[in-house]
Structures are given as structure tokens and as C-alpha cells.
Description:
Elements: E1 2-10, E2 20-25, E3 30-37, H1 42-60, H2 63-70, H3 82-101, E4 109-118, E5 123-129, E6 133-138, E7 141-144, H4 151-157, E8 187-193, E9 199-203, H5 205-208, H6 213-222, H7 227-240, E10 247-255, E11 275-277, H8 282-299, H9 305-308, H10 316-335, H11 343-348, E12 353-363, H12 365-373, H13 377-389, H14 391-394, E13 395-397, E14 399-407, E15 410-418, E16 423-426, E17 430-437, E18 441-444, E19 450-451, E20 453-458, E21 460-461, E22 465-473
Helix pairs in contact: 1-3, 1-8, 2-3, 2-8, 3-8, 6-7
Amino acid sequence: MRIDFFAKTDVGRVRKENQDYFGYLEESGFFIVCDGMGGGAAGDFASRAAVEVALKAFEKLSIDEISEVLGDSAKGVPGEALRPLACIRLANRALFNFSDKFHRLSGMGTTIVAVLYNKDTNILHMFHVGDSRVYRLRRGLLDQLTKDHSKVTELIEQGKMREEDVKTAEIQSMITRALGIHEKVKIDYRAEFVLPDDNIMLCSDGLVSELEDGDIKDIMLANKDSVRESTERLISSANEAGGKDNDTVITMRFLPDDKAQAASQYSGDMVGNVVTVPEETQKQSAVEDKILKSIISAARVKVPKSAREKSIISNPLYLGSALALIIFAVVLSLSKLGTKQPDTELLDLTGKVAGIALEVRAPKKEYISAFKAAEDRIDRLEMIQDWYSKKDELTVPMKNVTVIIKQGGVEKLRVNTNGKDFIEIKLNSGSYEFVVEYDGYKVVKDSLEFKESVGINVEMSDVLKPILLVMLPE
């Protein structure tokens, strides 16, 4: 069978950086989705480096090298699935080594979910670490083919949490396995037969944190004949539901071709069962380090400049100065304990703040013209999504836009944009209506509706909530 597929990643509606990454080798039938974690550029680097290392290793590893990396640890895994397993191990080792070498990357990691389709055996091989998922839509039924490596999954299996409580659980994003966190890694493997018209979907947890499985099923079923429309609609629906995280989706549809299908050598008990490949031995880790030198060079993995800058911890003089400043600050704080402080200052000590960082932008003229000329709804939706995810490249800040902030129908604040920077607006927690006024322009969202106002929820957080509004001429 042949594969029709479409892949896309989106930053979402809240976060400024996209720490998801995907990649594939179409001719080999190898597809990957990663969801990075870590402060600064660490999460973005983790997911990107994992994909790049895994793909390059898939292309370059020899049979002997695969055998050295895996040894006899992959019992129960067929030979054709050994190459991706070795690639994922190498990706884990590469990330761990990077975080060990560069202090600013310390603690970074990424989930990974990957599939390999073998046309000769008609088998889909699945590999995963973390909570990114594989779904299958077959004859109107949706099945999750991977099990999340997460704390909530453990609690549900132990009967300590109900599935309906997952969406509101504070630990819902706490995963129990990831690449790069530890020197060694356990990988789950599963194989499944593929049938004509099967739809397979890989995704990061940003999608499933916003959409229930029933929603995913309805969207995939309604768009089962178009992998592009299915992917686009899944991501736009997650954004419409809140878009609190990055979303990445690869949708694949398996179509019969003219070639005769060879009889599969797989017996029934070789598919559908999960095999957990154990951590590598110390000897295998040493082999990985040796192989990675050429793989990382060939993949041209580049460590972010910010991560290569020296930490003050590596310089005793800087470290001593920092400690002196900390001691001074503590003494100063103690000296003020006897003075009654206003309540607002006491609240500030928590480090939390309520408010938004507002940007109002418009597409560049050439993109506005392209939008007006586009007749296809999907093309227009994709343009809007690109404006929000690539704002610095495709849009410009708007000047003299009046934003009226209302709560309960009562005006609380009125601001004008300066056409340069975002506006910091501190508000109390709650729900607000933002009325945006600029002659001839209105706010445009994924629904393709032009709106004069948008609803925004404000909560206490570590940083001001970033809000981007893109406006178009009516």
C-alpha cells in the first residue's frame, strides 16, 4: 500500500515558542513527532536535535552498529524494527550528553513517538517514550495505540484517579519517561497490521490536552479522505478550545496500490502486544558515544548560542560576586521585616502576576492581497495560522489601535498601541472583553470570522499572559 500523509506543527495560542518538532523519511516510511521540555531554548533544541539525530542515524547506521547498540536487549522485536530502536537510543544519548556538557541545557528532554511502515510485510511498527501518541481510525472506530508514560496514567491504573479528572489534574503534564533526562532509556514497541483506508495519526500532547478522543474521532472521520484537512482541522480545533500548548499532528492514510501484497510472515501473537525494551548496558552506552560523533556531525546539530555561553557557576570570581549579592539581599530583606508593608507588596513576594502582554498586528500588504485572492477555505485558514505562528516574519505591529477592556459590560481600561512594542496591562484575575477599534479593520481568528471584540481570561501566573491579535481589513 502507499501512504498519503500531511504533517504540521503550531505554536498554539498561549506560548511564544514552539517546542514541538517533527520529521520523516518518506521513502523509508519513517515518521517522528517530538515534544520538548526545558527552559529557554532547551526544549526547542531537545525536540529538534532528537528528530535530526534519529533521522540521520536511520540513514547511516550499519547492521553491525545496530547490533552493537542493541545487543540482545530487543528480544521480541522483529529485525525490521531494530533500526528505529537504535536511532531512538542514540537520540536519547545525544541529548543527555549535550545537557551534561552545556549547563544551560541541563534538565532538557523530549517525548518521542515514531512509526515505521514496511510495505513488504504490511506492518506498522510503533515506538514511543513519553506522552505523545499514535491513534488509528479504522472503519469508524478510533483506537489509541500507545499508552502514555505519565503520572496520571499510573494513578488511573492503580485506581487512584478517574479518567474524567485528568483534564483538571495539576499533574496531567507530569511524564515518567523522556529522552535526554537520563543516561539510559526504556522504549515501548508495538506492531500492528495495516488495512486499506486505515488512518494513522501521530500527535503531541498539546492536541489531546484540548480535545477529547470523541472530538478527535469526529474530526478524523469527517475528513478521512483528506489527510491535509484532517490535520488542519485537528490543530485549529485544539486552538479554538484554548490552544494552551504547542500542537503537532502527522496524519497518514493507507491506500491500496497496484502491487501484489506479499503474504506477511507475522503471526497473530506478534502484533498488538507492547514490548518494553530495557535500558542499555554500560558497554552499549560507550558504543553509542562512539557512533554519535559521526551522526551528530552528519546531522549538523547546532547547539543554541545562548546555551554555549559560559555560566557564572563555571567562573569562581562571578560565583563569589553572585553569592555576595544574595547575602546582601537577604540582610536587606531581614532589616525590613519589622516594617508593615502594603498588601499589594506582600502579594508581589509570591512572584505571581495577573495581566497580559498585548500585541496587535496586521499581515504585510502582500499577504493581505494573497488572502483576498485565495478562494479555498483551507488555504485561508492556513494563512491565518501562519500569521499567528510566524508573526515576526509575516506581520507588522499596528499603531493607534484603540483597545477597550471591559468586564461585565463596564469599561475598565482604554489603551492605544504604539506600533512598536507589546503593551503590558496588569489586571485582576477574571474574564474580560477586549473591544478592538481601528477604522476598516477587524480581528480575524481561525474560524474565519471577523470580530470587533474577543474574550480573554486572566489568571495569576509567573508572567504576563501573551495575547496576539491579528487584524485584517473587512
